[in-house]
Amino acid sequence: MSKKSVVEIQTTVLCAAMAVILAAAGLLLSCQGCGKEEAPKGRVFVLGLDGATYDLIGPWMDEGHLPVLKSLMDSGAYGDLVSVLPPMSPPAWASAVTGVNPGKHAMFDWYRRLPNSRSLVSETAKSRRAKAIWTILSEKERPVGVINIPLTDPPDAVNGFIISGMPHTDLREYTYPPGLSSELGDYMTDSMGDHLEKDNAEELLEKFTKTYEERLRVTLKLMSERDWDLFWVVFTGTDRIQHYYWKFMDENHPKHEPDAPPKLKNALFDFWTDVDRGIGRIVEALPQDVTLIVLSDHGFGPIYKEVRLNNLIRGRDLEGDPICYTDGGIAQLIYLDMQGKLPYGIVPQDKYDEVRDMIARKLMDLRDPETGERVVKEVHRKEDIYRGRYLSKAPDLVAIEMPFYYMQGDTVPGRDPVGPVSTTFNAFHQPNGIIIVNGEGIKPGPLGRDQSLMDITPTVLYMLGEPVPRFMDGEVMEDIFDPGYLTGNPIEYSEGSTAFEMEEEEYTEEELEKLKAVPYLR
């Protein structure tokens, strides 16, 4: 063998060894004589646990009861994920999947009022006015899979599949492609309007459990059978179970039932241990090259008392109707009843700032008559927290309660502004959710600062090797990556908007009647 041949063989072996080492580090480079190859684009699996909070699951993880989540935390980056304001599922998930604030995607609540009308209709995916990440990727011919993200019905046409999330107005066509629904077997969609009654607690619990199990089954099936670069699934049972069953485990809760059967007292713990096992099955099924993101759209906490917004205003400033209103029963979003904006509006246009400031002061001054403590933590004017072409549709004020309080729009005469909880909810949303990330280039350990829910889509695009649109309000979460990974993989940006050109989707009369009939979770 000639000296030249030996050198060529040595060079080939050396290049192959370097390729193996660099590929394992996620930084496959070319060496002289090996030829150049484009760096592979990654894949991302986003696992949404609606309403997950470290306040609840953190102690259970520390005690060894949720070993899969604990292992993911120990081996990955983790921290708080700050929701949008208010921390409600429609604006939260819409912000997560678009990377923009509600002023740009136009989703503020479960409901909206029709133009120049007092009629309420349910929001749907047609209300979202910015492109979701699955649309952005589909336009680039990247395959996607989406399961059960709230407010995704009707499903978008994508390069892949979507099983839409609640609310549903037509369960015959809740998937894309449409024929997919016939392949799902006993898959159960979420329903709106559930109530915890005195005699249905065990039945409702079984429904939530069965829905979770079917969603897990379909997730495992489709993640193995379908091609995808992004797979995003949301398990909403974690939110439902906390809304209705927190009181059974919380001995300090005013609605605690000490004689309730163990099945109800252990409902949250048992459900979360089932979820942890399910996450373990998902992790086992994930290919090695996939980055896993576990997140929640908001946090959670018990509610011991409620703040009745309309009763605070009514009878103290005007003899007639309240000067502000809420949509859907949750009073964190406050709209002034303006003349010229709604039929029979009572607040003059030139009194807008004066009345709005008065309401904000009253809320901030409101005290619990039993403790003397404030019940409202903060009140935001819409222009201070939203920006974009849909600012005019935003609530005039957004109020955030103190822990253990719940704001609702009760107008029952005779009730004090602060009093016992009347809703069947016994726990509600808090601003801080969770995020845990495992994968290539991720720096393990606690994050040095809180991350924003709007950062999810820009970060996922970066992980997938795609440019980040500058139109987005969120940013790539650089804190979760090793510095060397960021240096070797600089963030790229793109210009232009991800907003839809149409100002607003139109609905037929039949569609509007269906939207008006959709109830809310109470």
Task: Give short descriptive properties of this protein.
single chain, 522 residues, alpha/beta, Alkaline Phosphatase, subunit A, Gyrase A, domain 2, 3 domains, ten-stranded mixed beta sheet, four-stranded mixed beta sheet
Shape: globular
Going by CATH, the homologous superfamily of the largest domain would be Alkaline Phosphatase, subunit A
Figure out the total of helices: 16
The largest sheet, given as strand count, sense and whether it forms a barrel, is:
10 strands, mixed
Total domains, how many? 3
User: If you consult CATH, what is the topology of the largest domain?
Assistant: Alkaline Phosphatase, subunit A
Q: In terms of structural class, how would the helical and strand content be classed?
A: alpha/beta
- Work out the number of β strands: 22
Helix content: 25-40%
So what's the CATH class of the largest domain?
Alpha Beta
Radius of gyration: 25 Å
> Could you give the distance between the termini?
82 Å
Unreliable sequence segments? 1-40
Q: Any guess at the CATH architecture of the largest domain?
A: 3-Layer(aba) Sandwich
Strand content: 15-25%
- Mean pLDDT across every amino acid position: 86
Compact description:
The chain is an alpha/beta fold. It has helices at 3-24, 54-62, 67-75, 89-98, 102-105, 133-139, 201-225, 237-249, 262-265, 267-285, 309-313, 352-365, 382-385, 456-463, 483-488, 509-516, and strands at residues 43-49, 77-82, 111-113, 120-122, 144-147, 160-163, 175-176, 230-235, 290-295, 299-308, 324-325, 333-336, 376-381, 397-401, 404-408, 418-420, 427-430, 432-438, 445-446, 451-452, 468-469, 493-494. The chain contains 16 helices and 22 strands.
